[in-house]
Amino acid sequence: MTDVDRWDALERRVAELERRLPASEDRAAATPDPDVFWALEGLLARVDDPGAVLITGHVTLPDGRAARWQEGVGVEELLDGDWSEHVAALVALAHPARIRLVQHVLRGAATAQELTGIEGMGTSGQVYHHLRQLVAAGWLQTIGGSRYEVPVARIVSLLATILGTRR
């Protein structure tokens, strides 16, 4: 193989690699947003050390309900608080059937009968048991016609809880 052949082969390989790269506009979209930490920057500007935790969200659910929520607490208050007070709320979500029920209800209020129809959900007695646990913990509430919905005040915190488990 001559030097010219090698250069030609190398140019073909480089051209093939360039062809496989995403278009320049795709690369621009992948560039991190310089304002990606806008909420954190706002919190840092308002809170001194040792800091705070902030939950904020703006959600419009498929049924049209809107939830705009913000809650912040100083880290010392969180660390010094009695975490055992929150066990019931966390346990209520910590069951595969219950988390599926809440997820389904977030898409729109549903009756127990509709929820029983979810594949693999179990008997109506089991569904009612799970619904009672979720209502008692405040994750669901009943509305007219024996329908269930996630209270607006819980929507953002529920979604933030799920988001937090993705880390």
TrEMBL record:
Source superkingdom: Bacteria
Record-linked SUPFAM superfamilies: Winged helix' DNA-binding domain
Record-given protein name: Transcriptional regulator
